[in-house]
Design a protein that fits this description.
Number of helices: 4
Shape: elongated
Order of helices and strands: EEEHHEEHHE
Number of strands: 6
Radius of gyration: 17 Å
Distance between the termini: 35 Å
Structural class: alpha+beta
Helix content: 25-40%
Length: 137
């Protein structure tokens, strides 16, 4: 499988602007700029997209882990916060709220740890990854 996205930029780093388009067109000329990255401007930014990718990848990996042990999640809701400090992503923090019937906290924690370590985005990121979870069975 191969996927692609395109970035277009015009102007300087601080005063310029750009847009992002994904192969699926879910993002289609979606605006990004200095102000959407470092201030509170309208548009997206690379860190927000990494956060969405990590939350989605981790959650899907966990769903597969649960399925392999014959569990089905009623719901898995993951929030990801990316920390950018001095030009580097220094942390990806995942917060999971899960509803899974019949699983013990200990078994669930093992599956969460596996998803944290083995989802493709976790493997891609060269940073500290942390996870907090709440399990409601």
């Amino acid at each position: 499988m191969k996927r692609k996205a395109e970035a277009f930029w015009t102007g300087t780093g601080k005063d310029g602007k750009g847009h992002l388009t994904t192969q699926s067109k879910v993002l289609s000329e979606t605006q990004y700029s200095f102000s959407s990255r470092f201030e509170n401007g309208i548009g997206t930014n690379p860190e927000e997209l990494v956060a969405a990718a990590h939350a989605g990848c981790f959650t899907m990996k966990l769903a597969f882990n649960l399925q392999a042990k014959n569990y089905t999640a009623d719901s898995l809701k993951t929030t990801c916060q990316i920390t950018l400090e001095e030009g580097s992503i220094t942390n990806s923090h995942l917060v999971l709220d899960a509803k899974v019937k019949g699983i013990s906290n200990e078994e669930f924690e093992e599956l969460v740890k596996d998803a944290e370590a083995n989802c493709p985005i976790s493997k891609l990121l060269d940073t500290e990854i942390t996870v907090d979870f709440t399990l409601n069975s």
